[in-house]
Amino acid sequence: MSSLTYDIVDSRIMVGRCLRRSWRDPEAFFTALMLPIILMLLFVYVFGGALRDHGPYVDYVVPGLIVLCAGFGAGTTAVALATDLAGGIVDRFRSMPIRASAILLGQVAASLTRNLLATALVIGVGLGIGWRPTTSVWRWAGALGLIVLFILALSWLAAAVGLLAGGPEAANSFTFVLMFLPYVSTAFVPTDTMPSVLRGFAENQPFTPIIETMRGLWMGHTSTGASTAHEALIALAWSVGILAVSWLTATRLFRRSTAH
Fold first, then answer.
1. Fewer CB within 10 Å: C terminus or N terminus of the chain?
2. Greater pLDDT, 31 or 249
3. What is the largest CA-CA distance in the chain?
4. Alpha-carbon separation of residue 173 from 112, 120, 141, 240, 241 (angstroms)
5. Which residue has the higher pLDDT, 183 or 47?
6. Phi and psi (nearest 5°) for 180?
7. Are residues 118 and 79 in contact, defined by beta-carbon separation less than 8 angstroms?
8. C-beta of residue 168 within 8 angstroms of C-beta of residue 83
9. Between the CA of residue 56 and those of 29, 40, 52, 109, what are the distances in Å?
10. Which of 163, 152, 174, 180 is CA-nearest to residue 68?
11. What pLDDT does 1 receive?
């Protein structure tokens, strides 16, 4: 078989292993799946009446919940990879005729799969409780493409953190950082409701243009007043930048940690 064929086979095996591992940890697996539903109902029915501005709050909050759940899922990936390194399973894999790249690709692909499932739940529950995007098929495709790119970037970032953390406990703190950042963005309230110092941070961190691009593609307008095209360019720049830096960092860290 060719080198590419071996890479595909090894990666498929590693992806299957990571997904089976998720399924065999029902507490973490169902938490990741139930979290989007619980947060959706909480924000729409508990906080939505107070936060509603122009139109139903569910129309505003769906993009924010998608990135929030993506951050939580990426944190899970960092912990899983750090656990594998600490437990010695990665060394065992390296002693087998398995491509080293397949070990990382398996974690990232499994992360992408889990996060896309969580995204589908957010969209499904949102549609069930009244979210009504006013958009075309092409705009839907653009929004979904951006989601895939951003989740992929976060997954590689999580892989880099898992390799750098030195242990599952340190990697677990990454989850809280990624879950906190969407709160200081336009995920749940517009930035003009924030103090000036906090507003500056919220408007210039990576989650905000991602959220605003999705909001513009689905609902036809952004909460910042900027055009969807403007937000999309910034969102793509952040996503591609995070993906490139994280991929390079993760691959180099992995080679260094297994070079013995």
1. C
2. 249
3. 61
4. 20, 26, 33, 24, 23
5. 183
6. -80, -40
7. no
8. yes
9. 31, 13, 6, 35
10. 180
11. 47
Task: State how many domains the chain has.
Answer: 1
Decide: 71 and 179 in contact? Cβ < 8 Å.
Answer: yes
pTM summary value:
0.87
Mean pLDDT for the stretch of residues 14-24: 68
Instruction: Note the residue count of the chain.
Output: 260
Separation of alpha carbons 82 and 75, rounded Å: 11
44 with 136: CB under 8 angstroms?
A: no
Residue at token pair 């940890």: 25
Note down the domain range covering 109.
3-257
Higher pLDDT pick, 98 / 168: 168
Residue 2 has pLDDT above 50, yes or no: no
Closest alpha carbon to 81 in 93, 66, 99: 93
- Cβ atoms of residues 178 and 71 within 8 Å: yes
